[in-house]
Amino acid sequence: MISMTTNTWWASALGAIVSAEPALCGITVVTGAQSANQWFSGVSAYTSIAFTEFPASTLITEQYASLGVHFGGGPQGNEIMFSGGDSSFFPQDNLGLLGASTVEMVFDTPMRAWGAYYPGLLRARLYTGTQLVHSWDPEVGGWVNNFIGFFGDISFDRVVLLQPFSEYPGPDNTRVAMDNMYFSTVPAPSAATCLMVFLAMHGRRRKANSR
């Protein structure tokens, strides 16, 4: 059995935390439009894209490059779609992005937060380079005004939205749609916050054990 003094233990624990990967606290997932404020309050600053900057049927690739994001996806690409006033599709502003099979966003700077309103169902994958750092699959829910958001201290530079049911191909199962989108380089919570929580929890354990 290996034993260590309290001072040695604290030094080892602190060193392990400081040298740990950015995944120290992980990623918080916010789902549902009714909970979207949890994402916005957790991310202090963000950039937004409403897809109202270009007319319907515009093929989107590098139009938002000045914001540090590049769009790709399926062979047909992604285009601006007008919902025709249908409140069940793009209720934010009647315009959104429609992908034939996938929507891919590549960022110039690693992100710590990403979120979007969307109709229907989709799957989301977060990558750093080619490494998958987080995956999210659809939950049972309605088709109107959904929201999915991620934030934390894991960085990622690519977000891929996938068709919800690739095993059942069809016109309704191979398209990916997205309404307003938001992204940020600001981590929440920070690694420093995680360290404080860790130390506080260990302090409570030591106090309890000393009684």
Number of separate helices: 3
The radius of gyration over CA amounts to 21 Å
Mean pLDDT score, rounded? 77
- Largest sheet features: 8 strands, antiparallel
Overall number of domains: 1
**CATH topology call:** Jelly Rolls
The CATH architecture term is Sandwich
For the record, the CATH class is Mainly Beta
**Oligomerization state of this entry?**
single chain
Q: What is the approximate shape? A: globular
Helices and strands, in order, run as HEHEEEEEEEEEEEH
The percent range for strand residues is 35-45%
Structural class: alpha+beta
**Share of helical residues:** 10-25%
Question: Could you give the count of β-strands?
Answer: 12
Unreliable spans? 1-24, 189-193, 195-202
Distance N to C terminus: 25 Å
Summarize the structure.
The protein has three helices and twelve strands; from the N terminus they run αβαβββββββββββα.
Give the arrangement of secondary structure elements.
Elements: H1 6-18, E1 27-31, H2 36-42, E2 47-49, E3 59-60, E4 69-73, E5 78-82, E6 95-99, E7 102-118, E8 123-128, E9 131-136, E10 146-162, E11 176-178, E12 181-184, H3 191-209
Antiparallel strand pairs: 1-10, 2-12, 3-5, 4-7, 5-6, 6-11, 7-10, 7-12, 8-9, 8-10
Can you describe this structure?
The chain has a single domain, classed as Jelly Rolls (Sandwich). Strands 1, 2, 4, 7, 8, 9, 10 and 12 form an 8-stranded antiparallel sheet that branches. The chain has a 4-stranded antiparallel sheet with strand order 3-5-6-11, with no helix packed on it. It is built from 3 helices and 12 strands. The protein starts with 5 loop residues before the first helix and ends with a helix. By secondary structure, the chain is of the alpha+beta class. Mean pLDDT is 77; it is low at 1-24, 189-193 and 195-202. The longest helix has 19 residues, at 191-209.
